[in-house]
Amino acid sequence: MEQWIIPLVTSLISVSGALVSVIYGRRSVRSERLDAADQLAVRFREPLLHAVFNLETRIYNVVELDFFARFLAPDSSEEDREYAVLNTLYVVGQFFCWCEILRSDSQFVDPRNDERNCEVMRTLEAVRDTFSDSISLNERCFRLFRGEQRALGEVMLAPVVDPHPGAPRWECMGYAAFLRALDDPQTGRWFRRLRTDIEVLAHDMPGNDARLRLIQNQLIDIVDILDPEARRVPVGLRKRVSPTPSAPDQHENRMARR
After folding, report:
1. Can you name the residues that pair with 157 across neighbouring β-strands?
2. Max alpha carbon distance in the chain (Å)?
3. Rounded Cα gap, residues 196 and 212, in angstroms
4. pTM to 2 decimals?
């Protein structure tokens, strides 16, 4: 009896070992694929977070710290006036540019977490809805319809030279390139409405900032999702604006950041 039990046990051990090897091999391959996918996703996630934070910060400075009133005042230098307008145009365009890149190149920002991906897409859509809202928000300042949003993103696109497989084929043009691009009438036309709105806000903030206040809070929602452990954006910089104007001295000054 022992003559066939020993070979049987040996065979079972061999089969078990083979099965374990196959299972761990598949897990290893899956883990490697997820790691590779996550490395690619970072190429979308990091610049998106940067664009969201830049826009959120600028809106905070505008509605809480009188950014436009201060830097577009009659006694402001030409350099300050130019930066206040043009850099604001840039951070708005940069945000929509990365929305466009995500739409065309990537279906995820976290390959390991479908719920997180859905939350990012949901909050991005919430921001786009607020920009285009012409029903619940009566004011016209910074109202950008969906087609205008897409156009702003498209004109900011810059092709990536020889991108890696699966990596973004596009990136957002830098600020210096953007300033050169504005000289082209076909690019500058999409920013005319925003230029006019900036002048309005510089002289008449009350009654024209509800849209921006709502958008700023929605952008903070995106920062919280993209950077839940605050490794990129410290908690202290995630200030949410109030739904109505507050006294300037109730907020720490973040003007120097942008």
Report:
1. 172
2. 104
3. 15
4. 0.80
